Amino acid sequence: MPHIRYTGYCKGDKYIVNGQKTWTSFAQWANWIFCLIHTDSDANLQKGISLLLISMDIFG
């Protein structure tokens, strides 16, 4: 999955996610989104990927 542009890392009990949101159809009615991010910078592009479930009401 080399096209994933999000990166992130764990800080305490939270993940810090870096990237740019791309708006998806009907996302304005969603309460949650799924986000694939690279969390292991030492792994190749097909590995080191995490799936996060993110609430749409958080800042960022």
From TrEMBL:
GO terms of molecular function: oxidoreductase activity, acting on the CH-CH group of donors
Keywords: Oxidoreductase
Family annotation (InterPro entries): Acyl-CoA_Oxase/DH_mid-dom_sf, AcylCoA_DH/oxidase_NM_dom_sf, Mycobact_Acyl-CoA_DH
Domain of life: Bacteria
GO cellular component, one term: plasma membrane
Cross-referenced PANTHER family: ACYL-COA DEHYDROGENASE, ACYL-COA DEHYDROGENASE FADE29
Protein name, as recorded: Acyl-CoA oxidase/dehydrogenase middle domain-containing protein
Organism: Paraburkholderia piptadeniae
